[in-house]
Amino acid sequence: MQSNGRLETDDLEIIPTAVPREGDGYQAPAQATGEVTAGLIGEVGRTLTEDDLRRVNTRRGLLQLIKSKNIDLEDVRKTLLYEQELQQLQVELVRLQRWVQADGQRIAILVEGRDAAGKGGTIRRFTEHLNPRAMRVVALPKPTDDERGQWYFQRYIRQLPNKGEIVFFDRSWYNRAVVEPVMGFCSKKEHQRFLQQVTEFEHMLYEDGVTIIKFWFSISKEEQASRFEARRQNPLKQWKLSPVDEKAQELWDSYTRYKEEMFSKTHTTFSPWIIVKANDKQAARLESLRHVLNLLAYKGKDEAQIRLTPDPNVITRFHRKMVELDF
In terms of DSSP H, where are the helices of the chain? Predict the structure, then answer.
């Protein structure tokens, strides 16, 4: 990489085996992207036509095309490096999953955070190359009438990992800690009962051998507003907006109060909260993957060709002395 910080022709390392990923932007046919990485497509593809991509067959040609489109070369460089690291970490995740299957481990990964914090996108990066037979993503809808008459944790118990399985919860039983009381979906008594029971519930799982990893993706109020606006402008992402999302900015302070109470009462040594600074989506994804890989003692871990220790500027455990986590 050039010392002056500018991206030059030799800096463009093109990975021929990469394939564009659904939902990341422009999607060109595979034959048109043989020398363009998935990350490059995701970052700049909205400004490149299929015909443009067909004309790119050298590094210099790609560089000239990018410049002609007024694309930020630093963004391209960052995205190429991100995709390279992501691929290496995903290789390690495949190794981790093989260990989970062989050793009969049960892993539950809870992904929580404010609306538009990047939860779903991070889960996709975790799961896109894993064996679906030994992995599930759980994103439960609102409870049915029957479920509302059950013990609160009952419907989540049915979703817990089986032997040799990893389960990702895209929101979890912690809905009752923040979203439900903020939006008036539960009573004050139900909320307090949850806070009393949840640590006992998680301790029973811990004693039975279930590994629980609890992530909270933390973004600023300004970043949330920006992401909501991007969703409104993108017809492919408008489905993500819900009535709850629309009130998130208005109720920001209420979310903060309930979130802080949740951390204070549910952060334990056997089930700690891991805070992810998520204003930078790419950093949040990479460091979350690193945290899981660093935490679990899977076979082959010592042979990893990439750093597995997460960046403490992005990933940290909750501490009760922390005042405000959302920047």
Answer: 38-44, 50-55, 59-68, 73-103, 119-127, 145-148, 154-157, 179-183, 188-207, 221-233, 243-246, 252-266, 281-295
Q: Residue 18 — φ and ψ, nearest 5°? A: -70, 150
**Structure-block tokens of residue 258:** 């309930």
Compute the distance between CA of residue 46 and CA of residue 75 in angstroms, rounded to an integer: 14
What's the mean pLDDT when you consider all of the chain?
A: 85
Instruction: Supply the pLDDT for residue 55.
Output: 64
DSSP per residue, 258-270: HHHHHHHHH--SS
Q: What is d(CA 21, CA 38) in angstroms, rounded to the nearest whole number? A: 6
Question: Which three-class secondary structure state does DSSP give residue 32?
Answer: helix
Give, to the nearest 10 degrees, the angle between helix 119-127 and helix 73-103: 60
Q: Model's pTM, two decimal places? A: 0.80
Domains of the chain by start residue, with CATH: 9-71 (no CATH), 103-317 (3.40.50.300)
DSSP string of 285-299, one letter each residue: HHHHHHHHHHHS--T
Among 25-34, 220-229, 276-285, whose mean pLDDT is lowest?
A: 25-34
pLDDT over 60 (residue 26): no
What is the number of residues in the chain? Answer: 327
Mean pLDDT lowest among 57-61, 110-114, 211-215: 57-61
